[in-house]
Structures are given as C-alpha cells and as structure tokens.
Amino acid sequence: MPSCWTRREALLGAAALLTATRSSAQLPGDPSLDARSLTSFVDPLPLPELLKATSPNHYAITMQPRLSRLHRDLPLTRAWSYGSSAVPPLIEARKDQPTTVEWINALPETPLISHQGFMVMDAHPGESPCRTSPHLHGAHVDTKNDGFPENWFAPGHSYTCHYPNAQDAMALWFHDHAMGVNRFNIYAGLSGMYLLRDEQEAALNLPRGKYEIPLMLCDRILTKDAQLYYPNPEQTGDEEDEFYGDAMLVNGKIQPFCDVEARRYRLRLFNTANARTFPLQFSNHLPFHIIGSDQGLLAAPVATTRFDLAPGERADVIVDFSQTRGETFQLIGDGFDLMQFRVSAQRSQDESTLPKQLRTITRIAENTATRTRLLTLAEYGENMVMLLNGKFWHEPVTEIVQAGSTEIWQLANLSDDMHPIHLHAVRFQILDRRTINVPAYFATGRVEYTGPVTPPLPWERGWKDLVQCPPRSITRIIVPFAAKPGRYVWHCHILEHEANDMMRPFDVVV
Ligand code: C2O
Ligand code: CU
Ligand code: CU
C-alpha cells in the first residue's frame, strides 16, 4: 500500500481528534498585506493579449516565471504565466479548425508557493514540484489531450495537445491540472482564456471587437512586499481547505477601472478563483442580459440584476451602458468591489443587437438515459477529507460509462458547503435540485426528500460543464457521454477540495 494511503488512513482516524483551530483572523507575525488599504480603481483594466500562432492554428506556449505589477502602488510580484505577456493570454479559435498547442514547461525547479501541503495524498513527494498538465476546461478531447492529472511533465519538458474545436462557440479556460499541485500552479498564474467562435454566433451581430471584453476574476492574498501568499499549513496548523483572499484581481490587476462608451458591451466572465464563488451584480443594480454559460449560448437572453459565478464557470453577458451615460459604478462580487466602469457622457453609435433568440437548445428527455447513478459529495471528519461517492482518487474506477450513452447523475451533496462539480470531455444539462434529509441518509442510506423539486435557474438552462451543487441537496444532471473511449475526471472545482480528494476518474468504454 502506498505510504500516502497509510497517511490518509491515519488522518481519517485522527480527524475527530484534530483540534487545530481554523480562522481567517490574522496570525501572529502575519505576513499579509491588507488589500483593502490599497486605493481602488487606479489602474486601467488590462485587456488580454491575443496569442499569436507560430503557424496557422499552431501555438507554442511557454510556462515561465515573470514579474507583474498588480497595482499602481505595489512593487512587482513574482508570478508564473502561459507566455511572457504581463496580461492574461487569450487564444481565439474557430469551430472545426483544430488547434495544436505545444505546452513548454520552462518553470524553475523551485515552486512559487514553496510549501506543498503536508496532508495531501497526491503531493507526490520527491517528484518535481513544478510539474504541469495543461487542461483546456470545456474542451471535448480525448484523454491524451485532456490534461489528465497524472499525465504531468516536469520543467525542461514539453507536451503537444490537439484540440479539434468540434463544438459550439463558447468560452473555455486553460489552466493547470497537475496532480496535487494545480491549486498552487493556478494560483501562481497558470491560467488563460480561449474563445471558440462559430458562424451561428457571428450571425447574431453581438457587440464585438473592442466592445467584447473578457474578464478573468480571482482573489489572492499578498505579502507585505506584494508577493503571492498562500497559507502554509506548518504555520496555520492544517491544510488550507478553501482559499479566500482579500485582493480582487480582474485580468491580473487589483480593482482596475474601465472607460466604456455609452452603448452595448459583451462581457465574457471567467471565475478562475481557487474557491470563491462570486455573486455578481453592479453597484447601481443595472440590469443586464445573460446570453451564454459554460458550453455556449443560451436559447434566449435572460434579464437579471445578479447571478452567482462559481469557480470554473463562465458567463456571457450583454450590458447596455447607454442607460447609464456619464455614470461611474462598480461590478461587485461577494461583498468586494471587483472593478469600476466609467461610462462616457456622450451617446455612442451602436450597430450591435441583442437578439431575441440565440440558438436552439433541445432539452434532453429523461427517458433517453440508460443509467441513473446516485453519487455522494461528502466531507468526513473535521479536516480535509472530502470524497466523491466515498472514494479516494486512487481507488479503482467506479464510474464506467458506455460511449454514446446518456446517464443521469444524481449528485447528493451531504455537506454544508456548495460544491461546484465539473465533468471533463462532455457537456450536460441540469435537470433539477431538491433538498434531502442528510442525517436520515447517513443512518439508512435512503434518500428522503425534504423540499420541492427546483428547476435550474433561467441562465442554467443551456449546455453546462460545471454545476453548482448546493448543500444538503440532490442536484440532477443529464449527460450524453459523447466522448472518445478513455479515462477522464470529474471533480469539485474548489481547488483545495479537488486536491483532498474530491476528484475521481471516470472511464468511457465501448
Ligand atoms: Cu477546470 Cu478539471 O478543470
Ligand atoms: Cu475541465
Ligand atoms: Cu467542493
């Protein structure tokens, strides 16, 4: 039995005895900078840098250290990035035109976050702490192009992935997925945006060019000298179970501002935070339209003034700033100002449209599912044992699905936390959610519903690759497994949960 298992077994047994105090309060000798003391909205919003292909549709992307200025009044911060640019990278691709990316690991041998978690089963002691496995989140690819966590490669090595792009227009997120360390690698900056375009989208006449703005949201903690800080379990007493920072970054800047014209804009939002869900709204309660979610456009725009964006989720939003000429207001998320919009006083020419219909989305009939599974999401003991269906990562595969078949997965969240669950290589639809009696389930193994069936929210009725599973509820998704045979993963996208062991393989077989 690998020693990591023994360690984990010991941890399970000891969990009840662990009395380590967790608190977000400042520690003695706290190294962190109070990000709220920085002046807000002094840096212009950086726009992502469109990566240039080395030959048509072929990219060579080097993972490397770089310095970046997160705020006007801070010194330079050491970070890692995909490519050399100080702004987040962006790839644009077209449907059915495959992209090839040679991912080059030119990282140093010493990680940016030097402690690597002392309880994590898959921390692979002795293996390169700067290993990487780039994953294109949202892509329908086969196993070897999917950034499988154990397909990592060390500094000095590279790996080429082929992305067929045989899917609808959507926003994808490329980020690291190397076993045991991706929460540090993403935190250090291995994160980028990928916009897939298609003709249907182009025909809609949505705001485009400079009127389409990708926004990558995340939170960080900085040390007093403006370096990235990630809590060290040797100081805090236990493994970080959900990272929350007080510095809010949009496209790599702390609370930037953006001058906009008084017209319609299309915002492409990416929640790239380790753990924080952003309930998003404008400070002036300006209504907006959600036109797309993870796997592309919705059937029709949905008007709202707020919605929750969980880690790993993307949203496609149309905002009409012509209603707020001359105004200045903030995009707020989870009690923080994320960024500021300053709307020009002049009216602008606007030829874009907000179509009434976007695309056809056929709801998948439940009776097409050939199998229904009940899969639990649960936390055991007090400290960092969180499992999918009661199983650790290394246990034999239990989710084995027939290629081309449709299944219903009933995700039974037995915990008091929301878990954003993501499946690789497929897209799915959300059926409904319903609260359950958790103590009764633990006692009898039987599901007892305690509330009515709740349909998905209007902006959740498109194609998804991530679903928010609220506490003490069963969330049902219907998944056509239109994937090539192979091994993929499903996991919680709270990166600290994923690492401690809320990630499981699933096999697609013929
Ligand atoms: Cu965002 Cu397993 O991925
Ligand atoms: Cu993914
Ligand atoms: Cu989770």
Describe the structure.
This protein is mainly beta. It folds into 3 domains: 2-26 and 40-199, Cupredoxins -  blue copper proteins (Immunoglobulin-like, Sandwich), CATH 2.60.40.420; 209-347, Sandwich (Immunoglobulin-like), CATH 2.60.40.420; 366-509, Immunoglobulin-like, CATH 2.60.40.420. 7% of the residues lie in helices and 39% in strands. The chain contains 6 helices and 32 strands. Strands 10, 11, 12, 13, 15, 17, 18 and 20 form an 8-stranded mixed β-sheet that branches. A 5-stranded mixed β-sheet has the order 1-4-9-8-6. The radius of gyration is 22 Å and the shape is globular. Mean pLDDT is 91; it is low at 1-27.
In short:
The protein is mainly β and 510 residues long. It has helices at residues 3-14, 182-188, 199-202, 233-236, 438-444, 495-498; strands at residues 49-50, 58-68, 77-82, 89-94, 99-105, 134-137, 158-163, 170-176, 191-197, 212-222, 228-229, 247-250, 253-254, 257-262, 264-271, 278-282, 288-293, 296-304, 306-309, 314-320, 328-333, 336-347, 371-379, 386-388, 399-402, 406-413, 419-423, 429-435, 466-469, 473-480, 486-492, 503-509.
